[in-house]
Amino acid sequence: MLTRPLATVAVLALLGSLTACGSEDDSTATDDPTTTASSDGGTGSFEPAPEGECAYPSDGNPAVEGVEPPSPDPTVEGEVEVSIATSAGQIDATLDAAATPCTVNSFVSLADQGYFDGTECHRLTIAPSTIFVLQCGDPTATGTGGPGYTIPDELSGEETYPAGTLAMAKTPYPDSGGSQFFMVYEDTPLPPNYTVFGTVDPEGVDVLRAIAEKGTANGGPDGPPTETVELESVTAG
């Protein structure tokens, strides 16, 4: 799964569940992009916010000091254009704040704070895995880093992950997303557990495929890209 590493265990879920929390870690998953759970154990305890607001509870483990959590009152709406300049090429995407207001609110807040700038995409999954994603958003590039707070899942239960999908990673627990996200470059059969909050444009998908063609640094189906992929800047709106 696509998740953030729960130490080393959540990491093994990378290709089946893309997860993200205060500590997102990925190790040797071959079926799901996942992340590692936060320092509090990643139990996923979560109190829903009042209707119309978003809850962003602290997990006490920020990868970068000084990151401000987003306002509980979403400041974005409709479609939000985002420009992701990477060392491998330009990736543009459209975020869907109508369907996923809390997720987009957090992503835009982090982008505006420069949280993603200068960070490396730490995970690439390729054949013979059946998951085809590039996972980014962890300033530590270990799969365990997050913004110091978690975000709620925004799921319909009908999510699919075709090429061009932009979705949140998380730990195996509900409502455990943070800053790690994944971009899908070939149709990927994942369970509807990962919030889909945007779409990468066709040119961006081509950039992702070019990254994948160069393989992983460890020669396996799941690992860092052979050539380092750095997010030089992420600009939203």
Low-confidence stretches: 5-30, 37-46
Q: H/E series, N to C? A: EEEEHEEEEEEHEE
Radius of gyration: 15 Å
CATH topology descriptor: Cyclophilin
Q: What class, by secondary structure content?
A: alpha+beta
CATH superfamily: Cyclophilin-like
Helix content: 10-25%
How many distinct domains? 1
Mean pLDDT: 85
The CATH class designation is Mainly Beta
Specify the number of helices: 2
How many strand units? 12
Q: Give the CA-based shape.
A: globular
Strand content: 15-25%
Give me the side-by-side strand order of the main sheet: 5-12-3-4-10-8-9-7-6-11
**Major sheet:** 10 strands, antiparallel
Spatial separation of the terminal alpha carbons: 30 Å
CATH architecture: Beta Barrel
Short description:
This is Peptidyl-prolyl cis-trans isomerase B (Cyclophilin B). This protein is α+β, with helices and mostly antiparallel strands and 237 residues long. It contains two helices and twelve strands, in the order ββββαββββββαββ.
